[in-house]
Every structure is written in C-alpha cells, then in structure tokens.
C-alpha cells in the first residue's frame, strides 16, 4: 500500500500544479479551491508513505512523478513546447525515478 500512496501523492501533485495554472494566480476561486484540495491530498498521501519509506527515497520519487506528470500535462493540455534535448533529460529523470525505486530495497 505504501507505494500506491506514494504514486497517488505524485499524481495529486500533478493535479494541484495543473489547477494552480488554471487558477490564474489564484484569481479564479474554483481552481484555487481545487489547488488546495489537491495539495492537501498529495501531502497526506506522501505523509502516509513516509510511515514506511525513508524520506531520502519517498521525496525524490514524489517530486519526480509530479515533475514528469506536470510536463506531460503541460505539453498535452497547455501546449507547452519542448525541444529534443529537454525530452532527453525528461527520459533521464524517468530512468532516475525507476532506478531509485529498483535499488532502494523497499
């Protein structure tokens, strides 16, 4: 269950970062409320995962899942343009996340 909590925490990081973009500097109430709800859920799930995982493992995976997910949302829904070299480094980030998980012993 710990890894599910951590993965879902990363997904909710994507939710709150995306709704923060949609809130337009917290000027749209509905998106602002969803941003804070997403933050609360993300932090709560991260907290649950930290009961059984070391911080040095959980935090980088949480931020990595959130970063990669936010990149994908930015490209697909917000029209962000990334060059080939940027995609190369995103792939390295994904490899790093997988590597941390595989070598953690948890």
Automatic annotation (TrEMBL):
Record keyword Zinc-finger present: no
Membrane topology according to the record: Multi-pass membrane protein
Sequence intervals crossing the membrane: 27-50, 57-78, 84-103
Chief location of this protein within or outside the cell: membrane
Localization terms from the record: Cell membrane
Keyword Cell membrane: yes
Keywords: Cell membrane, Membrane, Transmembrane, Transmembrane helix, Transport
InterPro entries: EmrE-like, Small_drug/metabolite_transptr, Small_multidrug_res
UniProt record similarity statement: Belongs to the drug/metabolite transporter (DMT) superfamily. Small multidrug resistance (SMR) (TC 2.A.7.1) family.
Protein's name in the database: DMT family transporter
